[in-house]
Amino acid sequence: MNTLFALLFYFATLVFVVGTLYRISIYNRTPAPLKIPTTPAPVNTGGVVLRMMREVFLFESLFKANLWTWGVGWLFHVSLALVLIRHLRYFTEPVWSWVAFIQPFGMYAGITMVLGVAGLWARRIFVERIRYISTPSDHLMLALFLAIGVSGLVMRFVVHGDVISVKGFMLGLMHFDVQSLPSNMILYAHLSLVALLMMIFPISKLLHAPGLFFSPSRNQADNPREKRHISSWAKLMETGDTTGAAK
Amino acid sequence: MSATITAPAYRIIPIIPALKPGAMEGSGPFVANDKIQEALGFPGQLVDDWHDRAIAKMSELLGKYRSLKVYMDACVHCGACSDKCHYFIGTQDPKNMPVARQDLMRSIYRRYFTLPGKLFPKLVGARDLTREVLDEWHNYYHQCSECRRCSVFCPYGIDTAEVTMAAREILDSVGYGQKYDNEIIGKVHKIGNNLGLPGPALKDTMEGLEEDVKEATGIDVRYPVDVKGAEVLLITPSADFFAEPHIDSLIGYGKVFHATGTSWTLSSMSSEAANFGMFIGNYEQLRKVALRIRQAALELGVKRIVVGECGHAWRVAYSFWNTLTGVGDGADQDDKFAMMLQKQLDHRYKQPSHICEYTWDMIERGALSFDKEANDKHVITFHDSCNVARGSRMGDYPGGQFDIPRNIIKSVANHFVEMDPSTTHERTFCCGGGGGLLTDDLMDLRVKGALPRMEVLQQAVDEHGVNFLAVICAICKTQFSKVMPYYGFDRKMVGGVHQLVSNAIRLGE
């Protein structure tokens, strides 16, 4: 079982990292031939960075759209971030002080994360419009997060696992030295689901995370009159055509 | 095309409508015939191998447009956009929700371009590209006015307009175009404007206009055509040349140029600001239409290019002209194509400028004066045109596109009120006729799409006695004049900002 999980995590990490980098490289090399920021938009790069930070940290556009979705969605994402940070303690020795500081918040964030998922799922089930646009994978994705969250909470608050051994296993993985994992079905489930999540990241809607940074309507500066913007494939149309005479 | 055209009842409180699946099925526009298609280099009729060609075209577009690629992947079906589209609000057809409209293409993208869609299509909502899907595309991608309202609210900025443009581009490439858009683009290529108004007729019309203005004001205001060496080249939508109420704004532009002593000209070869190439998402067509303006500017040797009141035309001019034609600033020194024109233009001014930027600048300099009382019979409100609001800018700061037209109105009239703020500025609703849908075969859709604007207009009428809806878009003007009677308004309530300027401007002497 130890070897099995070790292999699973090596594989999942590989798929996650390589897959996501591959997708990002596609986004990066695909040109944006026209200036299409959704205006009013910042007129320079500094402004674009601020706009992007407001989107990433505050979900500004979603806030404009719907307060309930924003509230539940933001709760889920912030909780998830805290939970992820908290889990760094299993990969660092000694534990970084700022991670230790977040530890208590991270524990309760597990609860709010599950609440957030439940809220998002309720919306998907009970709001007619959202139900209409939902695919089975949309529901399964929420089920996955819910299962990961609940299995984690059970180990934290109900059936305490042997966290020392888990940490030993994870630290071992990082040094290609497979240690033994506590024999615990809930832990097995928790880890398997996390590995699954990592593997589907680059081929699913979870790509919204890197995608946001490449969204031309958000990452372009509003300066088309001041600076000529042209893609390489469009530039080719201009060779030998300096008069621009309409044909 | 729908047999009956009905205006929906106003919602008591603007609640989100319940879904009526299939409400707008089979309500799409006329299909372009082979003559219209072939004039643009598209196949005349649906080709036999449309399936393979459509997928190949989609693959090409995914490689050429980052927007399309990212937007196909990034959607999480959160539903933020689902109640934001005026066509959804007016028709209640769930496929007019922006996310559902995108999914008509996303389902195909997933099936042919993603691993999960290839392996487990049902699981991820992927489906095969069938003839039914193609018909669905033609129907629902012509029920989107590319107004970008959904993109304001999307947490990833997904702009359905980009998806609609790609879909129309794919449809054209397999011989399944839209009659109205493609016919109009053909006219621009052939004659120089959307109306098919030839040069001599344009000159006659402008001479007639000079006589009318002389009669009304006693002053010789000029409406020149093809004057070499003029300072300003005015590029305006051709509807301004004789449609009502458009022409009243054209009269206004001429008066402003007259009052500021600026030499200006129209071009008979390039007598169209509108660029329907954007509506069909075809870069080559977009570029070819825009190049006429470059050619006119070079031939006439003008120093400035000013654009008349038109929404998507201003988006194309402001956001795309520099890219497409070099009308703008900041080209690289070795960029011969752009530098050729940019050296000629006067960069003390923004290139291109909106006529509202021009007029407001002159007002601020004190070069214009007005009898505001001339507009006292009007209680005015302003409708932000979608493409100006969310696809362009005026002036030096973000949001100038909202302030400058309002500043002009307040300078020339005494009574101005705002409509409900949840429907103005960046949240404005499309008039219901934008994006290449301003055709009689889509009349039912156009009436229904106007619903949310009509609701708040009614509110402004009831609360403030508004009797003039000012706009800066040729499509808005035509659309509102046509659909407002369905909602019980007088079609003459609609007019241009420069119509108000025209009413009040002092021409001197």
Describe the structure.
The complex is a heterodimer of chains A (247) and B (509). Chain A is an all-alpha fold. Chain A has twelve helices and no strands. Chain A has a single domain, classed as Fumarate Reductase Cytochrome B subunit (Up-down Bundle). Residues 242-247 of chain A have low confidence and may be disordered. Chain B has 509 residues and is mainly alpha-helical. Helix content of chain B is 48%, strand content 4%. The longest helix of chain B is centred in the middle third of the chain and has 19 residues, at 199-217. At the A-B interface, α1, α3, α6, α7 and α10 of A face α2, α3, α5, α8 and α14 of B.
Report the sheet-strand fraction of chain A.
under 5%
The helix content of chain A is 55-70%
- What fold name stands as the CATH topology of chain A? Fumarate Reductase Cytochrome B subunit
Q: What is the largest interface, and how many residues per chain?
A: A-B, 73 and 90 residues
Topology of chain B as a string of helices (H) and strands (E): HHHHHHHHHHHEHEHHEHHEHEHHHHEHEH
Number of strands of chain A: 0
Q: Which CATH top level class of chain A fits? A: Mainly Alpha
Q: Which structural traits does this protein have?
A:
heterodimer, A: 247 residues, mainly alpha, Fumarate Reductase Cytochrome B subunit, 68% helix, disordered C terminus, B: 509 residues, Fumarate Reductase Iron-sulfur Protein, Chain B, domain 2, 3 domains, four-stranded parallel sheet, 4% strand
Structure summarized in a few sentences:
The complex is a heterodimer of chains A (247) and B (509). Chain A has 247 residues and is mainly alpha-helical.
Write the layout of secondary structure elements.
The complex is a heterodimer of chains A (247) and B (509).
Chain A: H1 2-29, H2 45-58, H3 60-65, H4 67-86, H5 97-126, H6 128-133, H7 136-158, H8 163-174, H9 185-200, H10 208-213, H11 216-219, H12 232-235
Helix pairs in contact in A: 1-9, 4-5, 5-7, 7-9
Chain B: H1 34-39, H2 50-64, H3 66-74, H4 86-91, H5 98-113, H6 115-119, H7 131-140, H8 149-153, H9 160-173, H10 179-191, H11 199-217, E1 232-235, H12 246-259, E2 264-265, H13 276-279, H14 283-300, E3 304-307, H15 311-325, H16 336-342, E4 353-354, H17 355-364, E5 380-382, H18 386-391, H19 400-412, H20 443-449, H21 451-464, E6 468-471, H22 474-483, E7 494-496, H23 497-504
Parallel strand pairs in B: 1-2, 1-3, 3-4, 5-6, 6-7
